[in-house]
Amino acid sequence: VMLWTLLTVLDLFLAILIVVMVLHFIYTYVMIYRRGWISGSIHFPLVGDLPYYYWKTEPSWAQERFDSCGTNVFETTPIATKVLTVDPANVHHFAQNPANYVMRASLAHQKLWGKDSIMANEKELEEVLLPWIQQANLDKMANFFRAKGQVALSHFSEVAQRQQPIDVEKLFRKFSLDTFGLSVLGVEFNSLRQEVDFSKTLDIVVEESQRLTNLTLPHMPLRSKPFQDAIIQLDDFLYREISKVKDLPPSELQARTDLLAILVLSRDINGLPYSDEWIRNVLCSILIYGRESMASLLTWTLFRLAKHGHIQTQLFQELQFIGINEFPTHQHVMEAPFLGKVLKEAMRLHPSIPSVERVALNNDKLPDGSFIKAGDVVVAHLYCMHKYPKYWGRFGSDFIPNR
Q1: What is the per-residue DSSP string for 288-332?
Q2: Rg of the Cα trace of the chain?
């Protein structure tokens, strides 16, 4: 009797599971049919495209799907639909309609900056940052980059003499932290010469942020203790530095040119000082994204130059022609057009932010005719857009700075 009961329950469970799978299968294709012009691939019942996350790397998988259509719909779960596009007109449409396409903070971002992004008022933030990127300050930053660059070059020389491998990205992360430490916080980390706890903290924040941002279930409880501990250490350091700068004598504070001092001296639209939390959020964004973006750009540029000797030679000849020696200035960089092309081409092929997501609040129609439902997550897939054959031709994935 017990065995018969277990078999009956098992049969009932399997029957319900099959019915749900069939209904979801029908629902998926009905929705794709209703969208009509949006390409859709075969989804796995109940789990959508989830297996693709584990079987293939997303960039290569998405690139394959975009070869046939510039806008694709795919699912991560039955209740979450994403629409990916590589059409610049669609991306421009998102940017021009911020009221309908809003930023969705991931779990990691909510832990780092709270539910309200510091980028909510981008114009105000740009005005605050403007003094930091004035010509005189850029020249001073160039001195920081030059000094830390000499230290980084010494590391390359040492490993070359010993004929040992080197983790280039790790080295450039340290280089970026040292230069941003001086120009953003006015702090000498010297991580290129010694191990720094703050550098390890940022590494944990970045690694755990990427892992948690890629969670398929967006509302899964955040239980990463290393991530939470790293945020506490990050906050302790930043709030301590903010307090130190605020306690400086006015004359000493006015003489500083780092971003932290500029933020402390700045006032909001009501003429009031910015809160410590707001300053902390700005610093956190610059340090995390700035460090990762710079390290990524330098690593991939070096990688591409190493694989293309003729481009490396052409770049070297340009730098010699304009007179760059071991003491380059900001003006030297501005007079090197081919250097700019090399860096832009490296950024095109290897964007530090591969995609940008927004949530549609209302139904909409994109410039290419694609229908967007309220609640859809629309994704500007920059990684694939920068290689899309429709715009870049057959050689869109090749490194050609003079294109």
Answers
A1: HHHHHHHHHHHHHHHHHHHH-HHHHHHHHHHHHHTT--SS--HHH
A2: 25
State the Cα–Cα distance between residues 283 and 246, nearest whole angstrom. 15
182 and 258 Cβ atoms separated by less than 8 Å: yes
pLDDT mean across residues, the chain: 80
Mapped onto helix, strand or coil, the DSSP state of residue 116 is coil
C-alpha–C-alpha distance, residues 192 and 275, integer Å: 32
One-letter identity of residue 380: A
- Determine the 3-state secondary structure of 80 from DSSP: strand
Three-state DSSP class for 86? coil
Return the beta strands (E) in 34-103 as ranges: 39-40, 71-77, 80-85, 101-102
Task: Give CA separation, 399 vs 164, 171, 286, 375, 378, in Å.
Answer: 27, 24, 28, 38, 29
Cβ 298 vs Cβ 172: under 8 Å: yes
* Listed residue (386, 402, 399) closest to 309, CA to CA: 399
What's this model's pTM, rounded to 2 decimal places? 0.80
125 burial (CB, 10 Å; 0-12 / 13-18 / 19+) is: middle
User: Does residue 321 have a pLDDT over 70?
Assistant: yes
Distances (CA, A) of 403 to 159, 183, 337, 371: 34, 34, 13, 34
Amino acid at 102: V
- Reported as a single tens digit per residue, the pLDDT across 161-198 is 888 888 999 999 999 999 999 999 999 999 999 999 99
**Can you give the pLDDT at residue 137?**
81
Q: How many alpha carbons fall within 13 Å on the CB side of residue 60? A: 6
